[in-house]
Amino acid sequence: MLAQLFSSSSRLVADLPDAVRLIARLRWLMLAAGGLLLLLCWLTGLALPWLLLLQALATLALFNGVLSKRLLHGSPALPLLRLGLLADVLALTECMAFSGGAANPLASLYLPPVLFAALLSPGLFAWGLSLLSMLAYAALFGWHLPWPLQGSDAAYAFSLHLVGMWLTFALSALLITSFVSWLARQLAAREAALAAARETQLRDEQLLAVGMQAAGAAHSLSTPINTLTLLVDDMLQQHAADQPLCEDLQLMRAQLGSCAQALTRLKQGIQPQGATIALFATLAQQLSGWRSLRPDVRLEWQAPAGADPLVRLDAAFWPAFFNLINNAAEAGGGELTVIASLPEGQLQLDIINREGCLSAQQLQRAGLAPQDSDKPAGMGLGVMLSHATLARLGGTLTLDNRAEGGVHACVRLPLQGEA
Question: Where are the transmembrane segments (predicted)?
Answer without folding.
Answer: 26-45, 114-143, 155-184
